[in-house]
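Field: COMPLEX_INPUT
Field: COMPONENT_COUNT = two
Field: RESIDUE_TOTAL = 1056
Field: MODE = joint
Values follow.
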Amino acid sequence: MEWKNFTQLDVYGKLKKAAENPVDIKAELSGPGGAERVRDYKVPMAEGMTYSYAAKQVDEKLLPLLQELADEAELIPKYEALLDGEVINTGEKRLVLHQLTRGQLGKDVIADGVNKREFYTAQQEKAAAFANRVHAGEIVNEKGEKFTTVVQIGIGGSDLGPRALYISLENWAKANGTLLMDAKFISNVDPDDASATLASVDLAHSMFVLVSKSGTTLETLTNEAFVKDALKAEGLDPARHMCAVTSETSPLAGNSDYLEAFFMDDYIGGRYSACSAVGGVILSLAFGPDVFARILSGAAEEDALAKEPCVTKNAAMLDALIGVFERNFLGYGVTAVLPYSQALSRFPAHLQQLDMESNGKSVNRFGEPVDYQTGPVIFGEPGTNGQHSFYQLLHQGTSVVPLQFVGFHESQIGRDVEIRGTVSQQKLNANVAAQIIAFACGKDDENRNKYFAGGRPSSIIAGKQLTPESLGALLAHFENKVMFQGFVWNLNSFDQEGVQLGKVLANRVLAGDMDGALLEYSRLLGIF
Amino acid sequence: MEWKNFTQLDVYGKLKKAAENPVDIKAELSGPGGAERVRDYKVPMAEGMTYSYAAKQVDEKLLPLLQELADEAELIPKYEALLDGEVINTGEKRLVLHQLTRGQLGKDVIADGVNKREFYTAQQEKAAAFANRVHAGEIVNEKGEKFTTVVQIGIGGSDLGPRALYISLENWAKANGTLLMDAKFISNVDPDDASATLASVDLAHSMFVLVSKSGTTLETLTNEAFVKDALKAEGLDPARHMCAVTSETSPLAGNSDYLEAFFMDDYIGGRYSACSAVGGVILSLAFGPDVFARILSGAAEEDALAKEPCVTKNAAMLDALIGVFERNFLGYGVTAVLPYSQALSRFPAHLQQLDMESNGKSVNRFGEPVDYQTGPVIFGEPGTNGQHSFYQLLHQGTSVVPLQFVGFHESQIGRDVEIRGTVSQQKLNANVAAQIIAFACGKDDENRNKYFAGGRPSSIIAGKQLTPESLGALLAHFENKVMFQGFVWNLNSFDQEGVQLGKVLANRVLAGDMDGALLEYSRLLGIF
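Field: COMPLEX_OUTPUT
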């Protein structure tokens, strides 16, 4: 197995040449073969979902080149090496094991003297047992009353992923009788974030989950102090209201300030940690351990599918390769994620971190500068809201932005209303179908202001309903897509050195150790 | 006054040439003159706020060229023409009057036979009187009880702007005793959006504000039906729980299904309507009419400042011109909006619509294709959250993304906690200062993985506190920035033809009138 820069691959030049005559999706989709193309250009995913790429700029000439890229870049062997526990995170010299939280797809992985699958399973069981005891009223507050709310204190990956998953399933859980505790999140060091969240909960019946791998994250410890002050002010004992998710070596572990400590390790980065104890504790408390297990099961199914070497049978890999082609050869620098599901309202924010923090890099996995574009900017909002907002630019702006739609046949709650012969869920999905065609095929008009050039590519992941399983599969799909793109770009997708400098400088400001422009900006912001 | 394409201006070539040797902000800011530059490169804004552009790629050679651009493109005369009621929205042949809701800065504007300033003021007074009667318990529910919650039903501009403003001031209002009613929003046609919102409110004590200019917006009418069904199911009379914001000619006007109708007109587009009755009714109900008037007052002050012809004294114009220089000559296609204030968590979503829907266009105001880039993609999340998420790409990715920071000296609630000698608000602002310098100046490191190239431009708007006045000023700043950019690009920033095609195709799907690829996508989405 070789780690080569993208430009060192033989197929690089072939792809570049292919991009000189990009596929005309308007012609492909509006022509007589359009229907057939939509029927053919799709890949089955886990949980009966489908990845459709009929509105992407690929065809029977390009797909073999993408296969050649997958093969020459050794994407599947690299994925297998990762699953087998190789040191894929070269910068920090670490294994990359988030998939292992969901199932054993490779060899047994032994690290720190333990079988890591057993370690993750043990943490899941510990979280499940803890949640069950909270739900059963065995772990209670000072007055012997049940906890009704769980509040996560964490930032970045300790916040965005678990929060996106919680919001995704909150209504589903209500409709299915499994919303056992309400969940809230405190992340920002802005004191108004903690104040507002604390004001919105019943402190006496709230359990707090403090998430920090190192036990030293400034924002998180500051917010912990904020919470402890608030608990004490109401005469409550913080040690009866808090548990911790942290590393075994952190000051938070084995500490009587916490009811329990659940462990994470160095082999799962924050943005990949939703399936570890980082997501597991709060989601098991909110929805029950069974629902969390179902999320993992959907993700595991998708992880297994990602081992398929044929690009047209591997949704995550194909999605990744099309994205690379768009980024490096078609020159598209941004991707929009557009879920037609209000429940996925914060899923784009999670993907934004997942993708941009993983592949927003300028050096390869050996620390050498690369001479090609890497990860794109990711943004998105749920449809149909976005249609009445930024879609104007997506349709008629001077830049082309590839689109990633997500949609489901059924709503989560099931309550609906019929207007003009159709229900809202039909209207929602009619809009997805319409947008895909509008973007791809455009519309001629003599009035150029009403003219749509078309040729704007999109893909869609469609499923029956957003359930724990399909949500897990979605999560894994994007994790695996980002991983495959990192392999093609020869990046280390699992470190984040780019976040360090800001921390160092902020600490200098807080220590009063600054001069020049930094001092002037500190004055402008009224810090001292 | 002449409307010329950007490339027709004499200064275009000069700017292009200037961009060949872009300003090295790393050298400018890290050098001995760095502190002085931060002190000098700022513009006073309304409400004591400051626009700082010291970390932008401008200098004493470029600023005169930007002045030349402002003058040659006749930005101030065009703004004055707009204020005076000229038909600036050429596509729809309409005046553009959102600033007039906040004050009279130009001549009297007479349209539809009325003085428009008087029209807007009358609607504000009507909203204030209505809100006062609701607060006083003169308008009550079936049981004679006070309304406690207001729910806006609207989408796009009828949702994002009012929602962003409400969230921006919710905690401020709590802290200042002016949160008179809780506000909620229903926008998406996804039936789960309405279901979840309705489940979260006490229907018997909820007032609904239906916002649709035409009275025909599909999402809004569908959600209205949803709400009416829910009210009836609880034995409540919808006509006692709903008011409407609409045009005088819409079917919602003078209709006994609504307690009251407040009027908007054709001269204020959705994304510019937060200061009209679209924002005025819900914000007057939530916070009281005085707070809404204070928002307008801050906006009016900023509108007045935007009439200043000197670029270094006009924050909105300078912000606009720097943005144009970055977009057209430095090749940056995306701008990130990064408020260090949790209260502004949805402000980027509003700016995303404001900017991308206004200037995401490929034809000029006469409907002729333009041969230059127009509006960028806008995205953002509040700091410090973003730092632990997508900032990796912003610092070390292969694309440069200009940044727009916003920060305030004081929090809104005022509750804080001291850890390691500083409070959270200081930590929050230390991070802003640190990030600006980190992005601009970077850091050398032999380990290329820990190397930061720097040279990544940002600006910041800093203020004392996020209050109704400063929020209004912020809103107006960005509206005016977008307007000035539209003038430079010779666009009509006030229509949105790009949203039409999707609607037409969605209606075809719902009518069953589709074939080919559209039919196949409809099947994939399980619509029928």
